[in-house]
């Protein structure tokens, strides 16, 4: 890491070794203005509501990332993702099929008395 930094410094920032790319990406992603920080915290507070308190940190991080750097909803094309979902055997939102019951329940004679009282 130290040698990579020396190489970077000696080239006046023109040559970035692969060892420094992850660090450089992390540093460049830090907001430099407090207004930008405030916007990001505001977005996080919109995502981390009491209703969503059980979300994993990784899920919150992904939602926050998509919210901050993702395309606007009007530019998002869900068709490829829906096609992939359906191709994997998942049901569509308009699918009316339901799982069929495999085992029929036998009537319990003791329960017939109770059901009779309940007018079932």
From TrEMBL:
Residues 19-67 form the HAT C-terminal dimerisation domain. The keyword Ligase applies. It comes from the Eukaryota. Keywords: Ligase. InterPro entries: HATC_C_dom. GO terms for molecular function: ligase activity; protein dimerization activity. Pfam families: Dimer_Tnp_hAT. This is E3 SUMO-protein ligase. It comes from Solea senegalensis (Senegalese sole).
